[in-house]
Amino acid sequence: MTDAAAAARRTALVLRHDSAIGLGNLGPTLEAHGYDVITVDAPVTDVAELDPLAADLVVVLGGDEGAYETDRYPYLSDELGLLRRRIEAEAPIFGVCLGAQLLASALGARVYRGERKEVGWLEVDPTEAGADSPVRHFAGVPTVQWHGDTFDLPVGVERLAGSAQYENQAFRRGDWLLAVQFHPEVTTEIHEDWLAAWGDELPEYGLSRERLREQRESFGVPAEAASAALLGEYLDGLERRATVAA
């Protein structure tokens, strides 16, 4: 790598809450856009000791925790503090599922248990604003949903997508903060890990491990393409933003 290429690389700090809920197919897109990825496991890392503004981008992944369960999971309070500091600085953040819920909370919105879990390969519907955002790549493309919590839309953001069950599926603030409730990161390996870990609950939702594997066969490739397009477009926007700021 040349000195110029090394200098052009950026850092993405990934906050992970469960080894089974990793970066997945988001990783290659980050690397292709010149990011060195640093993954920290929030439950065992002193998040309060991290410099909130050191990384060019923070990616907050999913987890079983509720964003409101700070008494049970004290590290979530530290994550919320880090996110609030980045929000104050308008420093780029991308949140997925729990990550989106934590961002909603950091922006002052209520996060709470929904009436029923949303599980399976399901479509999200972009709003008018979403049709002009990276989320548009998932229009008509089923993606994995597996969550029981939801959130109110924070003040000062644009709602980008909803679903039949939950109105708030994606939002953004400016060109630097993007949050999605659904799971664009899912690879075959992650899918199988989730079926092994949480597949016993599927019959409650009229599903089975076999049915989700069939859906993965049908929808996995287009969903991964949509994932790369969504994250890639968001990262391209960050690059343009950095160029203008310079």
Short description:
The protein is of the alpha/beta class. The protein has one domain: Class I glutamine amidotransferase (GATase) domain (Rossmann fold). The chain has six helices and ten strands.
Task: Walk me through the topology.
Layout: H1 3-8, E1 10-16, H2 26-32, E2 35-41, E3 57-60, H3 75-89, E4 93-96, H4 98-106, E5 111-122, E6 125-126, E7 143-151, E8 158-162, E9 170-173, E10 177-180, H5 188-198, H6 209-245
Task: Walk me through what this model shows.
- There is one protein chain.
- By secondary structure, the chain is of the alpha/beta class.
- The chain has one domain: Rossmann fold (3-Layer(aba) Sandwich).
- The chain contains 6 helices and 10 strands; from the N terminus they run H-E-H-E-E-H-E-H-E-E-E-E-E-E-H-H.
- The protein has helices at residues 3-8, 26-32, 75-89, 98-106, 188-198, 209-245, and strands at 10-16, 35-41, 57-60, 93-96, 111-122, 125-126, 143-151, 158-162, 170-173, 177-180.
- The strands form 2 sheets. It has an 8-stranded mixed sheet with strand order 2-1-3-4-10-9-8-6, with helices on both faces. A two-stranded antiparallel sheet has the order 5-7.
- Helix 3 (75-89) links the parallel strand 3 (57-60) and strand 4.
- Helix 2 (26-32) packs parallel to helix 6 (209-245).
- The two termini are 24 Å apart.
- Mean pLDDT is 95; it is low at 1-7.
